[in-house]
Amino acid sequence: MARDHAPPRRPVELGPAEALRLLAGVTFGRLVFTRQALPSVRPVGHLLDDGDIVIRTHEGAALTPHGEGSDGRGVVVAYQADCIDAATHLGWSVVVVGYARLVTAPDEIERVRARLEAWEPWHDTEQVARIRPELITGFRLG
Fold first, then answer.
1. Where do the domains of the chain lie?
2. How far apart are CA 49 and CA 112, in angstroms?
3. Which one of 9, 17, 105, 126 is most buried, counting C-beta atoms within 10 A?
4. pLDDT tens across 40-82, in order?
């Protein structure tokens, strides 16, 4: 039985502005961080705020123990989000690498909590973290 062969799909690289625009259009992604010297991934909700990715997490998450890193800029993390159709395999994927820091200002924490629903049930130990992008990459599958 002969099969129709569609032309091969090629990923098209996205510029940083387009990648952030797509990221702003979804509310779910994956935080990639180091835990006990090993890579770890956690699904979280996010919002974009003044060019930063803001997430709600709990204090047991490994990005928060000492929170600032040795240089004071934060803990290096990656954040990945996508929107890919399971049937057609069309869509996009974005990865941001940057520094995560805990938000400590009470007014900013309350503003984020009002705009972003928590995905995890640890409300009593919940924290807010802000990821400042340093490297933004992405591609569209089409």
1. 11-141
2. 9
3. 126
4. 898 999 999 999 999 988 765 555 545 455 566 788 999 999 9
